[in-house]
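Practice problem 4.
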C-alpha cells in the first residue's frame, strides 16, 4: 500500500499554520512543521506502513507540485491537514488526487473538519473521509489497516446513493 501524507500548499506567500487550531496566514516568513502529520507518519512507520510525507507549505510547493508528487508516488490513500482559514485551498489536495487517479482515497484531518464535518463534505465531492478524532495517529492506522474493507463499503454506499438519486 502506498501512503502519501500532505501538508497542503500555503494560501499566503508567508505560509500557513494549520496544526492545533491554526491561525491561518502568517505575517512573517516562517513556517512551523506539521507536527500532526509528522506524528501520523512516524506512527504508521512504527506499525509497518511506509509512507511519504510532503510539507508543501514549508517547501513552498504549489498545487501543481503536489500533483506531480501524486503522479510519481501513485498513492492508494492521501491524508492531508486542514484549517478553517485555508479549507478551500486544502480541499484542492483531494480534488487533485481524484484527477490523478479517482481510486485514491482522500482523507482530511484537523480542527476544521472536526468542527464542521458535514459542511466539509458538502464543500468537496472529492473528499472520501475525515478523521474525526484527536487520536490522529490511531485513526490513520485504523484506516490503512482496514482500507480494502473501507473501499468496498465506499463503493456500496456510492452505488446505493446513485440508485436513490
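Answer key:
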Amino acid at each position: 500500500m502506498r501512503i502519501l501524507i500532505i501538508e497542503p500548499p500555503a494560501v499566503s506567500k508567508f505560509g500557513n499554520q494549520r496544526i492545533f487550531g491554526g491561525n491561518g496566514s502568517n505575517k512573517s516568513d516562517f513556517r512551523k512543521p506539521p507536527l500532526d502529520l509528522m506524528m501520523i507518519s512516524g506512527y504508521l512507520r512504527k506499525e509497518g506502513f511506509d509512507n511519504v510525507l510532503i510539507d508543501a507549505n514549508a517547501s513552498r510547493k504549489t498545487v501543481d507540485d503536489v500533483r506531480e508528487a501524486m503522479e510519481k508516488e501513485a498513492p492508494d490513500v492521501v491524508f492531508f491537514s486542514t484549517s478553517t482559514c485555508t479549507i478551500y485551498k486544502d480541499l484542492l489536495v483531494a480534488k487533485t488526487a481524484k484527477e490523478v487517479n479517482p481510486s485514491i482515497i482522500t482523507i482530511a484531518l484537523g480542527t476544521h473538519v472536526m468542527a464542521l464535518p458535514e459542511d466539509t463534505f458538502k464543500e468537496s465531492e472529492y473528499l472520501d473521509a475525515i478523521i474525526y478524532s484527536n487520536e490522529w495517529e490511531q485513526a490513520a492506522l485504523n484506516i490503512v489497516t482496514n482500507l480494502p474493507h473501507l473501499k468496498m463499503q465506499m463503493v456500496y454506499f456510492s452505488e446505493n446513493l446513485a440508485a436513490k438519486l
